[in-house]
């Protein structure tokens, strides 16, 4: 699977570990930065770049990483067509896919060990959307709002 990944300084180390892990698992990972550690960098540009790439490539998934994952999720969700979910355990990771058809997962690198965060990402990537009518209906309502209200 093609996976677009981005992180600021707070997620930089975890991003490196995840790129290595996901590539070893056979995924095609595209790194949207940060390209190097900079303690003063800002997460929105790289998260938005990863989010735009996910939307441009249906079927791909995205991972955005920061200290909490909150701002990274917010930045990704600015891009039309993105459904980014902040996952903080295995259940929120799998539900993000099964119920919300999330195409991006946000992870807080300061909230988890590398092993925990890797398990959260693996759970997200492995879980399919359930396709249940009630979930598809709710996603459709969000998409309709996005279509009708965005410039
Ligand atoms: O999680 C984040 C945004 O939601 C950032 O990674 C976090 O705010 C960075 O903090 P600092 O600049 O103090 O290292």
UniProtKB/TrEMBL annotation:
<feature type="binding site">
    <location>
        <position position="134"/>
    </location>
    <ligand>
        <name>D-ribulose 5-phosphate</name>
    </ligand>
</feature>
<comment type="pathway">
    <text>Carbohydrate degradation; pentose phosphate pathway; D-ribose 5-phosphate from D-ribulose 5-phosphate (non-oxidative stage): step 1/1.</text>
</comment>
<dbReference type="GO" id="GO:0004751">
    <property type="term" value="F:ribose-5-phosphate isomerase activity"/>
</dbReference>
<dbReference type="InterPro" id="IPR003500">
    <property type="entry name" value="RpiB_LacA_LacB"/>
</dbReference>
<dbReference type="Pfam" id="PF02502">
    <property type="entry name" value="LacAB_rpiB"/>
</dbReference>
<dbReference type="InterPro" id="IPR036569">
    <property type="entry name" value="RpiB_LacA_LacB_sf"/>
</dbReference>
<comment type="similarity">
    <text>Belongs to the LacAB/RpiB family.</text>
</comment>
<dbReference type="GO" id="GO:0019316">
    <property type="term" value="P:D-allose catabolic process"/>
</dbReference>
<feature type="binding site">
    <location>
        <position position="100"/>
    </location>
    <ligand>
        <name>D-ribulose 5-phosphate</name>
    </ligand>
</feature>
<feature type="binding site">
    <location>
        <begin position="8"/>
        <end position="9"/>
    </location>
    <ligand>
        <name>D-ribulose 5-phosphate</name>
    </ligand>
</feature>
<feature type="binding site">
    <location>
        <position position="138"/>
    </location>
    <ligand>
        <name>D-ribulose 5-phosphate</name>
    </ligand>
</feature>
<feature type="binding site">
    <location>
        <begin position="67"/>
        <end position="71"/>
    </location>
    <ligand>
        <name>D-ribulose 5-phosphate</name>
    </ligand>
</feature>
<protein>
    <recommendedName>
        <fullName>Ribose-5-phosphate isomerase B</fullName>
        <ecNumber>5.3.1.6</ecNumber>
    </recommendedName>
</protein>
<dbReference type="GO" id="GO:0009052">
    <property type="term" value="P:pentose-phosphate shunt, non-oxidative branch"/>
</dbReference>
<keyword id="KW-0413">Isomerase</keyword>
<dbReference type="InterPro" id="IPR011860">
    <property type="entry name" value="Rib-5-P_Isoase_Actino"/>
</dbReference>
<comment type="subunit">
    <text>Homodimer.</text>
</comment>
<feature type="binding site">
    <location>
        <position position="110"/>
    </location>
    <ligand>
        <name>D-ribulose 5-phosphate</name>
    </ligand>
</feature>
């Amino acid at each position: 699977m093609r996976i677009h990944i981005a992180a600021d300084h707070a997620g930089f180390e975890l991003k490196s570990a995840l790129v290595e892990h996901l590539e070893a698992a056979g995924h095609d990972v595209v790194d949207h930065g940060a390209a190097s550690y900079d303690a003063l960098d800002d997460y929105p540009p790289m998260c938005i770049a990863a989010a735009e790439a996910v939307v441009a490539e249906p079927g791909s998934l995205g991972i955005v990483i920061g200290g909490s994952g909150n701002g990274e999720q917010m930045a990704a969700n600015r891009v039309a067509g993105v459904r980014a979910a902040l996952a903080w355990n295995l259940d929120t990771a799998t539900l993000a896919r099964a119920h919300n058809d999330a195409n991006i997962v946000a992870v807080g690198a300061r909230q988890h060990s590398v092993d925990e965060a890797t398990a959260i990402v693996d759970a997200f990537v492995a879980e399919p959307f359930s396709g249940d009518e009630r979930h598809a209906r709710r996603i459709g309502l969000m998409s309709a709002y996005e279509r009708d209200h965005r410039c």
